[in-house]
Amino acid sequence: MKRTATTVLAVVLLATAGCTNDGGGGGTGSANVPGVTDSSVIVGTHMPLTGPAAAGYSKIAPATKAYFDYVNKNGGVHGRKIEYKIKDDGYNPANTQTVVRELVLQDKVFAVLNGLGTPTHTGVLDFLKTNRVPDLFVASGSRSWNQADKYPGTFGFNPDYTVEGKILGTYVKENLAGKKACFLGQDDDFGRDSLAGIEKILGSVAAKESYVTSNPNVGPQMGALKAAGCEVVLLATVPGFTALSIGTAAKIAFKPQFVVSNVGADPTTVGKALGAGAPLMEGLVATNYLPLTTDEANPWIQLFKKVNAEHNGNAEFDNNTVYGMSVGYLFVQALQAAGKDLTRDKLTEAVKKNGFQGPGLVPLRFSATDHSGYGGAQLTKVVGGKAAWVGTPYTTDDKDAPVTAYQGQAATPPQNGVPAA
Amino acid sequence: MSQFIYLTFDGLSRGLVYAAFALALVLIWRAARIVNFAQGAMAVAAVYVAYSVTNATGSYWLGFVVALLAGMVLGVTVERVVMRFVDHSSPLNGVVVALGLVLILQGTLGILYGNEYLPVETPFSRDAFEVGGVAMLSRYDLFVIGAVGTVVVALTLLFTRTAVGLRMRAAAFAPDVSRLLGVSVGGMLTLGWALAAAAGSLAGMLVVPTELGLHPTAMDVVFVSAFAAAVVGGLDSPIGAVVGGLVVGLLLSYVSGYIDVTVTPMAVLALLVVVLLGKPGGLFSSSKARVA
Amino acid sequence: MTDVKPKASAAPVPDTGLIVPKRRRRPHPVLVIAIGAVVVVALTYVLPPFRNYQLATVGAYFCVTAGLTVLTGLNGQLSLGHGALMATGAYTLALTQNKFMNLPFSFAVAILVTTAAGAVIGLAAARLRGPYLAGLTLAVAIVVPSVTSTFDETFNSDQGLSVVLDPPPEAFPMEQWQAWLCWSAALVVVLLLALLVRGRFGRDLRAVRDDETAARLAGINIARTQVLAFVVSAVCAGVAGALFAVLAQSVSPGAFPLTLSLFLIMAIVIGGLGSLFGALWGAVLLVVLPTLSQSVGEQTGSQRLEGNLALIVFGVVLVVVMLAAPGGLASIPSRITRLIRRNR
Q1: Is B120 in CB contact (< 8 Å) with chain A?
Q2: Where is it located (chain B) (predicted)?
């Protein structure tokens, strides 16, 4: 009796858990491609919507979805509406495993787009490869996404951290020559690759410190950097820790020039975390490779603000919003290029062919052998609480290529805001 | 040397916060023989209340007072609605229920406020005074010292000089006899929870602005450090809690300054192992290892 | 979509001291496990791939909840550090596997290392009681990220390690293979536990839990019993951790947070402390509840609900079960049965 009752209960539980997921369509589309029908294409992503890493980043996927909604309202891509499934993994790699499997096996997504995080996404590379799911525009600057031989379906988006480090280093070399430069970075690929890039340009830094996200106290590190007499501090930090570092330094009357990676430099997010200490950001140098939120005259910003107002509930417009919409724009471009008769192979082929003209300041590097994203960035400086451009964009690579000024013209969005085929 | 001075002051200021939090744990332990694992989440909830009040009124101090009151109310609620009905035949039960409360509180706060770090202001500047180029204390550190000092003195007076304090101690140590003598044991228990929750909320108000910001899980790590402090001092001893707090604060500060921040949780573990194996009831325990 | 539960009723010891044990003849554990194995194999052919993956996850959780319920439910030692023991197993497997590429060998090493870790913690634990033990194991739980960052050359800090695995034999889909792997391990673990606790060792465990003085008078070596219980339970956690490393093909401290340890406690409490059958219940809930609450969150379209609703549900269930049905969910059907019988 007891056992029967429990079994019945258990079955009911599992069944309820299951029934919500069985709706996601296998395709009746052209070649029975997973997630594709004549009228829709399902794409999924994993993002930290909760947990300590969610701050700021949780706004990316809704922005991407908002852009897709905008495209859908304008007729979709080759007649297909894009359905974007956003799964929360809380930045926990174990959860990423589960939600990505759910996306691929249960929801039958056509592709995974913009999965966020190095430790989280690294774990699903093999799974996505085995299932031949295109893994586009990973939201992290790790160099792991650029392994065309090993992971033919995986492509990056962000300039990798080494490229960015070289550009940050170039700024220090040209504008702060002779000052004692030091480094504080996250204790993972982000910090390490960034430092490698910086040291390619500057040689060895005077002092280097690291932090882990599980310990929100950078007092000792900032104390050590102060004791070492640092005049410039390069940060490879996430937004919360950028704010913490700047605030802690001010607390011990340590006021170096901060030069910060794009990952941790969104003035809105950092300013919010600093609260009343937001003016401490003044003069902060960082990089960006997408249009600045404050640049009202930029046609991309005008487009994205319009999309944000119409489809994103007019959410606060920051770098994460621009980032999310830029990812969406690029994905739509790739879908257009893949043609009406959509398959997974055609999509990756289209990405490899590249030639995308979008909001980015510098070209994407995609080719048959190169799967890394943007190849450079431009420096910014916080003036009057807002980021402003400095100089021209730079491009370089993660090896020993020189850092060179990029002269190409910025593209403008098409009239209706949807890339043409 | 200058670093040593800085680390010492930093450790003392942090240690006082642990002390206030450890006091909260000790108060409840003495009154109810429960280690309140929900103390951290309750404190965070109080800080969220302060955050809302301060944002609405613009007054830090109004938020501060409301937070302590809200903490008390929460403490009373938890005791009256939940803890009172827990079967205490096994010490496990209280712990498990408290863990359940942690999940409920964190989930609720996440839904109400979102899982983002919210910036929390300090009422005083955190810029340290410098004496001869050596960073010493900030105004905020002085505030922390004053606030925790007041609590310690007030509690000491309460327990040693007032009738209520005497009744609370009696109710905790000899409930049956006290009841016969007309002491409202249940009432004293509730009062203990209220005081403890207020002390915990104070610790939360003091520590949250010095870290990443306000987040449903903001007190998790603080809880572990404060718990270590309470255990080091002996769960039965309020003085032990204060001393334990300072010991843990200094240890963490020196370890992170001279070795590495990442090592600090290991240092806490090592301290616990040494103290517990050497003196299983804590440094200030009078009796032998208390079988909970 | 039947489920796997029945096999675990193997547990010959659902008595928590709180429920009156029913004197019904129980089938021998070997028989129940064999039936369970058949059910699982059948399920892996019926279920779609994602369900198979979830089934595999349940199996992995089952290993650790079964071990923990023996420690906490039968022996009365509360460990908040089992997440850390899982991490020990997972990291050992990852390091060994990446070096030697031999999965059985890696599992063996993982078991050995967690045995050692369990013995060390168990030796300390045997001297501690109640909240002191909880505090020590809590400190163990939060030391994981600290260890991986301090020795980042070996453990690669927050980013963790990826686990290199040979692909499963051609004939089997990945998820089916994973389910088999996890459930083979789970069934072996549970069978051994069931045989262990139905014998003298089980009686010793309960005697120590209920009254140490009486147990000592009866000639039971208290410390040895407690350390042994901790080691047994640590090994189970190590196996579970190793399974998770294989499932995730990666290990990182983020996969073994403090909440994992708390969830494990919750799982065994909800299932009914001390009952292996309840441990299975707990393992199922650990997989099902988050999925359910996520889909609720998705349907309401509220991002904030999504992760947090699960927490609240877990918490409420935990408190309610503790207050209303200390025998765990598994005891409810029998309570109802008893009620019905009484009313007849």
Answers
A1: yes
A2: Cell membrane
Domain's final residue, options A250, A272, A288: A288
Instruction: Please report, rounded to a whole number, the percentage of residues in chain C having pLDDT higher than 70.
Output: 85
Chain A nearest-CA residue for C58? A14
CA A80 to chain centre: 25
Nearest by CB to B262, which of A55, A212, A275? A212
Cβ of residue C41 closer than 8 Å to a chain B Cβ: no
**pLDDT confidence of residue B22:** 94
Using the 3D structure, point to which of A237, A267, A288 is the last residue of a domain. Answer: A288
- Residues present in chain B in total: 292
The SS3 call for residue A228 is coil
| Gap between the Cα atoms of C156 and C172, Å rounded | 33
**Cβ contact B119–A49 (<8 Å):** no
Which tens digits make up the pLDDT trace of C248-278?
888 888 889 888 888 898 888 888 888 888 8
Cβ-Cβ contacts under 8 Å, B17 against chain A: none
> Closest chain A residue to B255 measured between Cα atoms?
A220
- Give the domain range for residue A86: 21-159+294-374
| Shortest Cα distance, chain A CAs vs residue C95, angstroms | 15
**pLDDT score for C302:** 63
Q: Per-residue pLDDT tens for C221-241?
A: 988 999 999 999 999 999 999
Among C62, C303, C311, the strongest candidate for a mutation testing the A interface, having the largest count of A CBs within 10 A, is C303
The chain B residue lying nearest C125, using CA atoms, is B277
Domain presence at residue A231: yes
Q: Are residues A171 and A195 in the same domain?
A: yes
pLDDT tens digit sequence for A313-338:
888 899 999 999 999 999 999 999 99
Interface residue C307 vs chain B (CB under 8 A): yes
CB pairs under 8 A between A and B: 78
Each residue's pLDDT tens digit, C138-174: 889 888 888 888 888 888 877 788 888 887 777 788 8
Does A48 map to a domain? Answer: yes
For chain B, what are the domain ranges?
A: 19-217
Identify all chain A residues contacting B127, using CB atoms and an 8 Å cutoff. 250-251, 253
Residues A298 and A276 in one domain: no
Same domain? For A37 and A152 the reply is yes
Residues of A in contact with C31 (CB under 8 A): none
Q: How many domains does chain A have?
A: 2
Q: Which residue of C has its CA nearest to A123?
A: C250
**Res A3 pLDDT > 70:** no
Q: Do A17 and C145 touch (CB under 8 A)?
A: no
pLDDT tens-digit series, residues C14-66: 444 444 444 556 778 888 888 999 999 999 898 888 899 999 999 999 999 99
- Where residue A270 sits, what CATH number does that domain have? 3.40.50.2300
Using CB atoms, which residue from B35, B87, B291 is nearest to C326?
B87
Q: Report the C-alpha gap between C114 and C50 in whole angstroms.
A: 30
DSSP assignment of B239-289: HHHHHHHHHHHHHHHHHHHHT-GGGHHHHHHHHHHHHHHH-TT-TT--SS-
Residue of C157, C175, C292 to mutate, interface with A, max A Cβ within 10 Å:
C157
Q: How far does A113 lie from chain B, in Å, by closest CA?
A: 23
Residue numbers of chain B with a pLDDT score lower than 50: 287-292
Q: C292-315: per-residue pLDDT in tens? A: 877 777 777 666 666 678 788 888
C276, C190 in Cβ contact below 8 A? yes
Task: Tell me the two tokens of residue C54.
Answer: 């979830």
Distance from CA of C114 to the nearest CA of A (A): 20
pLDDT class for C73, splitting at 50, 70, 90?
confident
One domain, residues A117 and A171: no
As a whole number, mean pLDDT of residues A19-23 equals: 40
